[in-house]
Amino acid sequence: LKQFWDVVVKNKWLILTVAIFALGHILLFTKGLESGGPDMETYHLYASRIVNHLAPYRDFSVEYPPGSLLVFLIPFHFAPDLTAYGHAFTLELLAFDLIGLLMITLLARRFKVSVWVSLLIYTLSMLAINIIGIQRYDMVPAIITLAALCAFSRGHYKTAWLLVALGTMTKLFPILLVPLFLIYQWKNQRWQSLLASVGVFAIAVFWIALPFYNMGQQGFIKSFTVQGSRNLQVESTYASVLLMGAGMGLTQAGVYQGPMSFDLESPLAKPIAKETLLIMAISILAVCAFYFFSYRGFKNPHLSRPPPAAEMAHLFNYAFLIILVMMLTNKVLSPQYMVWLYPLVPLITGRARHPVWLIFVVASWLTWYIYPANYIDLINREQTLVSALFLRNVMLVLMAVWLLGEPRTTEGASREQRRKRG
Amino acid sequence: MPKLLERPWRYRVIALVGMLLALLIVTLAPQHFSELTDWGYLYATENFSHGRLVINDSLHREQVTMVEEQGSELVNYVRVGDNWAFEKAPGYVFYLVPFYLLHLPKLGNTLLALGLVAITYLLLARLKDEKVAVIGLLLLIFTPACLSMWQRFFMDSFAALAFSGMGGGLYLYYNLERARLKPFAGGFILFMAALLLGWSVMVRYSNALIVLVFGLHFLISRAWGWERDQRRFILQEGLYFGLGTLIPLLLVMSYQQVVFGSPFLTGYHFSHSATFAWNPILNWTGGLIIHNNLRDLWVPLLVGYPLLLTALPAMGIILFQKIRPRLPGKRQPISGDPWPELDRGSLILIFGWILAVFGFYVMYQQTAIQMATRMPFMTLIRYYLPAALPLTLLAAPVLARLSRRLLFSIVMTAIFLGLCFYMQSSLTQNITGEPETALLLYLGLKFPKGGKVS
Questions:
Q1: What is the chain B residue with the closest CA to A353?
Q2: How far apart are CA A81 and CA A76, in angstroms?
Q3: Which residues contact B104 (CB under 8 A, 6 or more apart)?
C-alpha cells in the first residue's frame, strides 16, 4: 500500500490531468452528445435477433464481421428497449474511449510528448467528430487498433497480433496493421517472434470466424465482400472531385440512393468505381514500400525489448497513414471512418504534428457539418456543401502527403528530446 | 539571366508568375452578373458616366425592363422624391466611370489588384523578408473570395478590399519606415494612405470602422510621441493624415447632399435594406443574428477564405508567444521576442482591422436569414473580403517558419483550392437563380432544388 501511495504521490499531477480529461469525456458522452441515430436500430435489430435464437449470416444477413455482434449484444443484455439500448451503447463506447484515454497517456509518456497536449487533442478530436463518434460502433475497432499498437510498442508482439485479429473481426480496417508489423519484425530480425505472431493472428481469426462460417457460409463471406460491390459513395474522394468538376461544367454528376448509401451518378463514376480496388491496393503497397525503405537508416537493427520509442513513434505515423490512404482511395468514405483515426491523432510525431492535428480537427468538424448536419444539401449538390466536401478531402490528402514526407523520427519523437539534444 | 534564380529575384519571379496566372484566369472567366447587385453597379456606372447621379422614373423603368429581359432584377435603385438614386456608396462607381468610358471596365479591378499586390509585397518584405512577401502575396491573391470578386468588376467587394488594403498597407509601411523616410516622401505616403483609406469608405460605408481603427491608432500613437517633444513633426503628420481622409469624406458628403438632400443621408436610409444586429421584419435581436451567423457561416467562410486555416492558428500562436513572457513566473526567452517583425502597435492595428470587419459583419442580419448551406458561399462571405489582407499579414510570417516541404505543400494547396473554388463560383451562371425571393427567404421557406435524388 505504501508503494502504491508513493506512486500516486509521485504522479499526482498526471493522475489529476487524466482524471479531469476522463471526467470531460464522461460528461461529453453522457450529457453533451445525443445517443441513438439511424444505425442504432440496425444494431438493436441484430442483437434482438440473436437473443431470439436466430443465427447471424444464416437466418438474417449482417453487413459487419462477426466480432461486431458482441459489441451489439452487450448493451442489449442491459437494455432491450431501443431508446435505453442507445444509452447503453453509448456507455459501452465510453468505456472503450476511456481505455483509449489511458493508453494515450501511457504512450505519450513513452514517446516523451506532453500528456496534457495529447489528451487535449484526443478530446478536441472527439468534440469535432461529434455524434458520429457515439452513434456508430467504429470506436471499438479504433481503440482495439490503438491497443494493438500499444502492445506492439511495449514488445508484446503476440498480444498485438491477437488484438489485430480481434479488430479485423470487428471491422476490417485493422488488418492494415499487418504489413507494418510484418515489416518491422522482419527488419529487426525477429524471425521466431514473427512466425509465432502470425500464427497467433491466423488462429485467432480462424477461431472467431469458423463458427459463423459454419452457420452461414454465403452470408458470412458476403459480410466481407458486400462493400466491394458498392458504387462511388457521394463523400468519397473520387466523388468529391467529380462533383467539383460538375460544378465547373467539366463533367456531369448526380446523386442517387444506392443500396447502402447515396452514390454518385456520372459517366465517370462506374469506370472509376471498377478501378478503386486496384488503386487502393497500389496505394497501400506504396505506403508499405515507403515504410520498408524508411528503415535503410537503421544501421544496427536492435533486438531490444521493448523497441525504442522513436521507432514506435515512426510506426504510429505509418499506422495512421496507411488507414488514411485506405480511406482516401476507397470508393466509400463514410463519416464514421474519421473515428478510425481518432485515437491515433494525438500520437502523431514529427514536424507535421501540429498541422496534422489542426487539419484533423477541422476535417472532422467539416465531416460532421456535411453529415449529419446538412446531408440533404450535399445530396442536392448545393455549391457550399460540395465545396466543403472537396475542402475536407483535400485536407485529408494534404495530411497524407505530410506524413508520407515525414522523415524517420529515430532521434527525436518529441520536442523535449530535440531540446535535450540542442 | 542567372540572377533571376538567385534570391531575392527568385521570389520576385514567383510573385510575378503568380500574379500573371491570377490575372489570366480572372480575365478569361466570363462575366455572369450572378447577383442582383452586379446589375445595380452596371447601371449606376452607365448613369454616372452620363453625369446622371439620379435618374427619372421613365429611365428607371426602362432600365428595370432591360434587366428583367436578362432574367434578373434591378434592385439597387431607391426612390428619392420624384427620382431614383443608387442605394450603395458611390466610390467604386466614380472610380469605374473612366474605365467604362474607355470600354475597359475590367481594367479597373486589375489596376486595383496590381496596386494591392505591390503594396502587400512591399509591406511584407519590410516586415520580414521577400520570402514572407511572396508567401503572403500568393495566399492573398489565390484566396477564392479575392479571385472571385476581382473577376466581378461590376461589384464593389474587391475595391473595398483593395482601397482599404492599399491604404492600410501604406500606413503600416509608413509607421515602420517613419524614422528613415525623408519628410516629403513620408508625408506623401501618409497622405496617400489616408486618401486610400478614406476612399475605401466611399466604396463601402462599413469600411468606416476600419478607418476608425487606423484613426485611433494614429491618435494614440502620436499622443505618445507628443510627450517626447516631437510636436512639430506630429502636427505635420496630422495635417497629411487629416487632409487625406478629408478629401473623400467631403466628396461623399457632397454627393449625398446632391442626391439625398443631406450630407448625412445615405441610400440605405431610403431602402432600409441593410440592418445590423436587428432584423426589422422577424424582430430578431443582435444575439440571435450573431448566433445564426456564427452557426451557419463558418463553413462558407472556410471555403471562401482557406487562408483562415492558417491565419487563425497564427493569431493564437503569435498572441500566446507575445503574452507568454509577461505571465507571472515566466522568464523572457533567451532568443527574445519571437515575432520582432510584428511590434505591439502593428499587431494591435492588424487585430483591430480584422475585428472591424468580422465583428461588424457577424451582426449582419442579411447573412443570418439566408439558408447558408443553400446559398452559394460567395454570396454570404464576400462582405468579409476587406479582412483578407490583415489575415495574410498574420499567416505569412508563421507559415514562413515551417519546413520547406510543409510550406511548399501548404502554398500549393492554397493555390489549388483557390483556383477550384474560384472556378466553381465564377463559372456558375446565376447565383441567385433559384426561385427564392427576398420575401420567401424572410419567411424561411425552403424550395426543392435542382439535382434531385433520382
A1: B406
A2: 8
A3: none
Cell readout for A20 is 479531469
**Torsion of the alpha carbons at B151, B157, B162 and B163, rounded to the nearest 10:** 140
- DSSP lists the bridge partners of residue A262 as A257
Q: What is the pTM of this model?
A: 0.91
For residue B436, the distance in angstroms to the closest alpha carbon of chain A comes to 14
Least confident of A5-9, A118-122, A267-271, A354-358: A5-9
From residue B86, give the alpha-carbon distance in Å to each of B40, B247, B373.
8, 21, 30
Residue pair B387/B357 in contact (Cβ under 8 Å)? The answer is yes
Q: How far apart are CA B162 and CA B385, in angstroms?
A: 9
- Which range is least confidently modeled, B141-155, B213-227, B240-254? B213-227
Task: Report ipTM for this prediction.
Answer: 0.90
Q: Tell which residue, B242, B244, B264, B267, has the closest CA to residue B254.
A: B264
Is pLDDT larger for residue B382 or for residue A230? B382
Task: Give yes or no for a contact between A141 and A171, defined as CB atoms under 8 angstroms apart.
Answer: yes
Question: Which of B420, B426, B432, B434 best tests the A interface by mutation, with the highest count of A CBs <10 A?
Answer: B420
Query: What is the model's pLDDT at position B445?
Result: 37
At A44, list the grid cell.
Answer: 438493436
Contacts of A387 in chain B (CB under 8 A): 303, 377, 421, 424
Among A358, A377, A394, the residue with its CB nearest the CB of B373 is: A377
**In whole angstroms, what is the distance from residue B188 CA to residue A139 CA?**
64
Round to whole Å and give the CA distance between B386 and B163. 9
Mind giving me the DSSP string for B343-371? -HHHHHHHHHHHHHHHHHHTTBHHHHHS-
Summarize pLDDT for B323-344 with one digit per residue, the tens.
Answer: 887 777 655 555 667 787 788 8
Q: Is the pLDDT of residue B432 over 50?
A: no
Tell me how far apart the alpha carbons of residues B140 and B388 are, in angstroms, rounded to a whole number.
7
- Chain A residues with CB under 8 Å of a chain B CB are 244, 247-249, 254-257, 262, 265, 351-352, 355, 358-359, 362, 366, 369, 374, 377, 379-388, 390-391, 394, 398, 401-402, 405
Closest partner residue to A382 (CB to CB) among B306, B374, B403 is B374
Q: How far is CA A416 from the centre of its chain?
A: 28
- What dihedral do alpha carbons B362, B364, B369, B375 form, nearest 10°? -70
Q: Measuring CA to CA, how many Å separate A232 from each of A368, B85, B282?
A: 20, 53, 43
Phi and psi torsions of B55, nearest 5°: -125, 155
Give me the pLDDT at residue A190, please. Answer: 67
Query: How far is residue A51's CA from residue A80's CA, in Å, rounded to a whole number?
Result: 10
H-assigned helices in A111-190:
115-129, 132-135, 139-153, 157-168, 177-187
Please give the grid coordinates belonging to residue B35. 447577383
Of residues A351, A353, A360, A350, the one with CA closest to residue B403: A351
State the Cα–Cα distance between residues A66 and A72, nearest whole angstrom.
Answer: 10
Give me A384's grid cell: 457550399
pLDDT in tens, B42-97: 999 999 999 999 999 999 999 999 999 888 889 999 999 999 999 999 999 999 99
- B86 bridge partner residues: B77
Residues facing residue A108 across a β-bridge: none
Q: How far apart are CA B425 and CA B304, in angstroms?
A: 10
pLDDT digits (tens, 9 = 90+) for A296-321: 655 555 556 778 888 899 999 999 99
Dist. CA A326–CA A192, nearest whole Å: 30
Of B207, B205, B168, B204, residue with least CA distance to B391: B168
Greatest CA span in chain B, whole angstroms? 77
Angstrom distance (rounded) from CA A262 to CA A333: 11
Residues of B in contact with A377 (CB under 8 A): 373-374
Q: What are the grid coordinates assigned to A366, written together?
A: 467539416
